[in-house]
């Protein structure tokens, strides 16, 4: 794989066949059984994307003992380890492998968490992430005409504090409410500039990974809608870059769902939220004004099946048995991808 390769099993992008089977997931508690890896491996993905909460290791002191133990336990999980060993993969963190529930840029121990992340994911010594803030990265895989760009955003390292709700637990206002403060940021100036440049790189299909949800409405948990100006900036950045074929992937929520929204001046944006691999909020119930069908509140992983020849993309959620539970078929033309 390209510079974003995170594992010894990863292969270089140059000279490899185009990606046609991509799997992804989030929220894997290392202290609980993880039977879903059998279904993930049976799917035989060309690439797996770990979208955050890859372990649960919140910590509050510099020894980071909880996070260290979490990574040690994860290393001993058979399916998890086999996937990391046999399948090319990329990874980004969310809050519980960052080290603080709902944590943002003011987390005091984020440098320690970053060092442990880079060690666990075998990030090479010369990788650019070792010399800058955060762990955002991107990779382009496949030959011209069949290139997939994977952009992994870091929505933790730079993020401003969120505005607490005035009605904790109330439907739609569970933890946070939208904050229109223009001084607040999701990505930070450097990452925003980097993202705009990445979106101008040549690629046909682009998977933009945000560990927290982008399109989802109707709930007061973490999401881009908590910083509505930043959410709009993301839409504007995609539009102004001229990038076609952008599809959003997210996790975090302990439920799975598919979403669709058409920002002004843009083609439709689709989002697949895949969460969790073994952490599930069984009683989840919330409005979904831009959701495609109901929530899927059981263990799941996401897939993106790319048919370059029929020019279509199938986005789906699969259960522990590998069965498809939610799906949407998207024509390349609907994503602005040229023939």
Secondary structure blueprint with pairings:
Layout: E1 21-25, H1 37-43, E2 47-50, H2 65-75, H3 78-86, E3 89-91, H4 95-98, H5 110-120, E4 137-141, E5 148-152, H6 189-198, E6 205-209, H7 228-241, E7 246-250, E8 257-261, E9 269-273, E10 301-307, E11 312-318, E12 324-331
Parallel strand pairs: 1-2, 2-3, 5-6, 6-7, 7-9
Antiparallel strand pairs: 1-10, 4-5, 8-9, 10-11, 11-12
How many DSSP-defined strands?
A: 12
Oligomer: single chain
Q: Give me the Rg, rounded.
A: 18 Å
Integer count of domains: 1
Along the chain, the helix and strand elements come as EHEHHEHHEEHEHEEEEEE
Helix-and-strand structural type: alpha/beta
The residue fraction in helices comes out at 10-25%
**CATH homologous superfamily label:** Alkaline phosphatase D (PhoD)
Mean pLDDT reading = 95
The end-to-end distance, rounded to whole angstroms, is 26 Å
State the strand order across the main sheet: 3-2-1-10-11-12
Return the CATH architecture.
4-Layer Sandwich
Strand proportion: 15-25%
């Amino acid at each position: 794989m390209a510079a974003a390769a995170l594992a010894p099993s990863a292969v270089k992008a140059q000279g490899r066949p185009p990606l046609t089977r991509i799997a992804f997931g989030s929220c894997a508690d290392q202290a609980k059984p993880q039977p879903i890896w059998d279904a993930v491996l049976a799917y035989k993905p060309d690439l797996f994307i770990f979208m955050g909460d890859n372990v649960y290791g919140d910590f509050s002191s510099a020894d980071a003992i909880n996070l260290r133990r979490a990574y040690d336990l994860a290393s001993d999980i058979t399916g998890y380890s086999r996937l990391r060993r046999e399948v090319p993969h990329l990874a980004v963190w969310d809050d519980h492998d960052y080290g603080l529930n709902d944590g943002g840029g003011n987390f005091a121990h984020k440098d320690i968490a970053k060092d442990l992340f880079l060690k666990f994911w075998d990030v090479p010594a010369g990788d650019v992430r070792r010399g800058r803030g955060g762990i955002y990265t991107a990779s382009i895989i496949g030959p011209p005409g069949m290139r997939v760009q994977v952009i992994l955003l870091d929505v933790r390292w730079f993020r401003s504090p969120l505005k607490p709700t005035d009605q904790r637990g109330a439907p739609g206002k569970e933890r946070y409410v939208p904050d229109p403060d223009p001084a607040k940021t999701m990505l930070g100036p450097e990452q925003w500039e980097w993202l705009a440049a990445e979106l101008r790189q040549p690629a046909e299909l682009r998977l933009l990974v945000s560990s927290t949800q982008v399109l989802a409405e109707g709930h007061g948990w973490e999401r881009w809608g908590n910083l509505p100006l930043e959410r709009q900036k993301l839409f504007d950045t995609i539009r102004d870059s001229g990038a076609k074929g952008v599809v959003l992937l997210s996790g975090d929520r302990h439920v799975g769902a598919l979403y669709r929204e058409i920002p002004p001046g843009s083609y439709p944006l689709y989002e697949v939220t895949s969460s969790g691999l073994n952490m599930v909020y069984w009683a989840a119930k919330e409005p979904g004004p831009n959701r495609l069908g109901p929530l899927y509140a059981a263990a799941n992983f996401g897939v993106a099946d790319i048919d370059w020849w029929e020019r279509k993309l199938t986005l789906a959620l699969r259960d522990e048995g590998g069965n498809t539970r939610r799906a949407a078929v998207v024509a390349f033309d609907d994503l602005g991808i040229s023939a």
